[in-house]
Input
Amino acid sequence: MIDVNLRQMGGSALTADIAVPKDGASKAAIPITYVPARNTIFLSFALGWAEVLGASDIFIGVNALDYSGYPDCRPEFVAAFQQLANLATKAGVEGNPYQIHAPLIDLSKAQIIEKGLSLGVDYGLTHSCYDPSPEGLSCGHCDSCLLRLKGFADAGCVDPLVYLDRG
Output
């Protein structure tokens, strides 16, 4: 088992003792909820595991439309990581290229919700909140909760998740 604890790096409201902005208070181009190099770290581990398994396809659930300004959720990042993967691995340099797939990258939050519903996802079992209560209830006010609630509204659905406060 590999233990990755991004709290050891800090630098984000999600990994350090920094307040999570609420009700659209975050006006920065790259908000304080950005976790430094998070998707680079995740993809690096996935790449290493893919090489061990002999797999050539790696999937990541980043989104460039309804994202919060995170630089590692953009198509340019995914393309650059794919190029790196093919330059930095035995498989890549031996002519067995990797393909990084980001199937959600160009979908709106409503489209993602609709796709999940068509696949039978029970959204009552999912969680998006950046600042849940000690009991695990979503706050209803952080950027992630607001994007999720808007996505459900835009999809014409009611979010089945229990919130501390739906705003």
User: Anything to note?
Assistant: Residues 38-53 form the longest helix (16 residues).
